[in-house]
Amino acid sequence: MRLGLYGVIAIAVASFYVYGELDKRLNFRPIDARVSSVKEQCYMEKTEGSRSSTSDLLPCELTELLARHHPKWQGADIKHKIEIRFAYISPVDGAAHESNLQLAAYPDNRQLSSGDIFPVQASRKEANRTRANDWVDRWLGRHAPKRASILGMEASSRPVLFAAPRRLAGL
Fold first, then answer.
1. What is the Cα–Cα distance from 80 to 104, expressed in whole angstroms?
2. Do the strands 96-103 and 77-89 form a parallel or antiparallel pair, or are they unpaired?
3. Are 35 and 118 within 8 A, CB to CB?
4. Host H or E run for residue 26
5. For strand 77-89 and strand 28-48, is the pairing parallel, antiparallel, or unpaired?
6. How many other CB atoms sit within 10 Å of the CB of residue 152?
7. What's CA 57's distance to the chain center, in Å?
């Protein structure tokens, strides 16, 4: 009986994983996106016994100081909330679009700044839909685009930087 329950749970978990991978492979394509802005904030989380406390969103430098020196927050875990706004060329219509992602850590554990290029997944069917790469994409090497999405090629095969349309010119 117990073995059957564990089997059903394992099949359910495997089914969700397979569905997510199938959805990603059929409906999304890896592309490069250009960062337009990065907003990083932090908060503290502390658990004492069965009670946990969470602070408001604060600048990360302040949370580090509070976690070290404030009596209530000494020893608290510092968590990040990173909002990345970026521009990309949609595989659906070939036009430039803007989107944003909220992450708990930087992609590939490298800090991003305005103008950097990083990989995301863009929908093959909806022009404004994106999703972040996950650990499986990085582990399998699928996070790199197959074709240039930010860099184009001229007839002379020299790389040419992406030229933003007027609606994105303020980036």
1. 5
2. antiparallel
3. yes
4. helix 2-27
5. antiparallel
6. 14
7. 19
Burial of 159 (0-12, 13-18, 19+ CB in 10 A): exposed
State how far the Cα of 31 lies from the Cα of 37, in Å rounded to an integer: 18
Least confident of 38-47, 78-87, 153-162: 153-162
Strand, helix or coil for residue 7: helix
What the block records as the tokens of 125 is: 């069917």
- CA–CA separation, 132 vs 108, rounded Å? 11
Question: Which tokens belong to 110?
Answer: 């490298």
Question: Cβ neighbours of residue 24 under 8 Å, at least 6 residues apart?
Answer: 121, 131, 137
Residue-wise pLDDT for 74-120, tens only, equals 888 999 999 999 999 998 888 999 999 888 888 777 788 888 888 88
Length of the chain: 171
The pTM score is 0.65
Closest CA to 162 of 93, 91, 88, 112: 88
Hunting for tokens 């040419």 — which residue is that?
160
Q: Tell me the CA end-to-end span of the chain in Å, nearest whole number.
A: 60
- The whole-number pLDDT of residue 135 equals 58
Residue 21 is given by DSSP the state H
